[in-house]
């Protein structure tokens, strides 16, 4: 039987961790487990996660002593999941913005795709409780990403996604340098360059009810800088390939597509 691990990074999510884990377990069957990756939260999130893990063998907790960004937490979670033999690895936020009720459909899509993206910006996707400037920033950032990298993915910055374990055999995780939210673009870009099959499915994203968003100006600047660098590097490699080998690089667009949600 295929097994899946939902990785939930936490830092000061004491009000959110128990509800999101409960919803995740309720929305899925026993083949789906949860790994809470806590970055030494001062508000006691890690202790709450330990309490939950004592109540069910479907929940595991990783305690990290340093806080080195979202990317670092996910990379640690991926390594743990691969070591323990899970077939599918899920990224999901702790704050309730990602609805666990989409998981059965997303996991089903992962049976025939390497990477499944929960997308806010394809037909059927939407956001709830966001101010206009947050939506403008996200839509604008994704538009710039598509133009800079030449990709077709509409929501490369989203953080609700499913990887197959075999996908990581072709993605160079050791080379991932981005730590903030650009980590999401980084992994999506690596998957497309590796020729993996990527699918977007619409989700509703709901702004957190409790706690404080981790988004900052530094995160936006990191994303713009790295995406620009990757785009320039891709174009230089394209030119070298045409000049030296008389052929273009493999397309980063053809393996990405979108599907409707399960109820459509």
Automatic annotation (TrEMBL):
InterPro entries: DPM1-like, Glyco_trans_2-like, Nucleotide-diphossugar_trans. It comes from the Bacteria. SUPFAM superfamilies: Nucleotide-diphospho-sugar transferases. Keywords: Glycosyltransferase, Transferase. It holds the Pfam family Glycos_transf_2. Residues 6-171 form the Glycosyltransferase 2-like domain. The keyword Glycoprotein does not apply. Belongs to the glycosyltransferase 2 family. This is Polyprenol monophosphomannose synthase.
